[in-house]
Design a protein that fits this description.
The protein has helices at residues 3-7, 9-37, 46-64, 75-92, 96-115, 122-133, 149-156, 160-165, 180-190, 210-217, 251-269, 283-293, 324-327, and strands at residues 202-207, 232-239, 273-278, 299-308. By secondary structure, the chain is an alpha+beta fold. It has a four-stranded antiparallel β-sheet. The longest helix is centred in the first third of the chain and has 29 residues, at 9-37. The two termini are 43 Å apart.
């Protein structure tokens, strides 16, 4: 029981009611955005149609990557993907989403041709789509790729635990501008993050000019004492138009969180210091920052990341990690 409830029980109840009402108002703020911007009731915008194409194309890629795919699997979805891709190209022309779909379809046709499986008019339809974009790009990426475990191990070989233990939340920075090429490299690394059905929903707003950094940081409450030293700030968002079901209402936070962490590690790999600046803000602050930066309502703000060059020597927090047995549950017992 709090001191307030003992000395002023009516005041304590009023405060609880106020906090509960404020919580509901913030929940409604998020609910309205998801209900309005997602394709919960069917793809309606160009972006949500892209998302649906990516979803169907990834279903193809997923099936083809299994050890023993069943010939002619998912033919109904394949025809749906053909139709949606054809319609999308007619409305918007050729872009990366159309190419991803066609490359996946090409891989599907090649697999079934090798298996001697009959898939009706799909090969002819896919060839028509391929011809529509063959002049746009010399090489289409998508479908599947043959890899070896050894090849992956060689490319991934590093002391990853050491890499992670060398990562810190840096709050001291050298007064040097950051080369945009380093930012671009870190974002390319973040693009390799997993995303639900390869929908690739995340966006990055990057600021490196001192006045702009200070302006954006004015909306964030956790940068006191070091924000003025930052060489740049990133705002990570995810596009709600890519989500299409009640079950996906939190997926933006999941995909966006993975993307943001990989982005921070990408900055670390480029020799820059970085610090996650959380966006645990109320709807009023969120709306004000969006209006200031120009972030559309269909994007969910995940986090900010401050970054810059590190000084030659400096202090960082040294936080004890919890014992491994508090974190890892290895083969927990399940009901018989």
């Amino acid at each position: 029981m709090s001191w307030l409830s003992v000395t002023n029980p009516l005041g304590a109840r009023a405060e609880r009611a106020r906090q509960s009402l404020w919580l509901v108002r913030n929940f409604l703020y998020d609910y309205r955005r998801y209900s309005r911007e997602s394709f919960l009731h069917g793809p309606k915008s160009r972006e949500s149609r892209k998302a649906h194409i990516h979803l169907l194309a990834h279903t193809v890629e997923h099936g083809l990557s299994l050890a023993n795919p069943r010939p002619a699997f998912g033919l109904e979805k394949i025809r749906k993907l053909v139709g949606e891709t054809r319609s999308y190209i007619a409305d918007y022309g050729i872009d990366a989403s159309a190419e991803i779909a066609i490359r996946a379809l090409e891989a599907y046709v090649a697999f079934n041709r090798a298996a001697g499986a009959e898939i009706g008019d799909v090969p002819a339809a896919v060839e028509t789509l391929r011809q529509a974009i063959v002049s746009a790009r010399a090489e289409l990426l998508g479908g599947t790729e043959d890899v070896t475990a050894e090849g992956i191990r060689q490319r991934a070989s590093m002391d990853f635990l050491g890499f992670m233990e060398a990562r810190h939340s840096v709050r001291q920075y050298a007064d040097r501008p950051v080369d945009p090429a380093l930012i671009e490299q870190a974002v390319r690394a973040a693009q390799q993050s997993p995303s639900s059905s390869n929908r690739q929903t995340c966006r990055v707003y990057a600021f490196t000019e001192r006045k702009a950094i200070a302006s954006v940081l004015g909306f964030q409450s956790g940068n006191r004492g070091f924000g003025e030293q930052l060489g740049g700030i990133l705002i990570v968002t995810t596009d709600i138009r890519h989500w299409g079901s009640v079950g996906e209402r939190y997926q933006g936070w999941i995909d966006g969180g993975m993307f943001a962490m990989t982005l921070a590690l990408g900055l670390h790999a480029e020799g820059l210091g970085a610090c996650m600046l959380n966006w645990s803000e109320t709807k009023d602050v969120d709306a004000a920052m969006r209006a200031h930066v120009g972030i559309p309502d269909n994007e969910l703000v995940i986090t900010m990341i401050g970054f810059g060059h590190m000084p030659d020597s400096f202090k960082v927090p040294r936080s004890q990690r919890k014992p491994l047995d508090e974190i890892l549950r290895l083969d927990p017992a399940l009901p018989a």
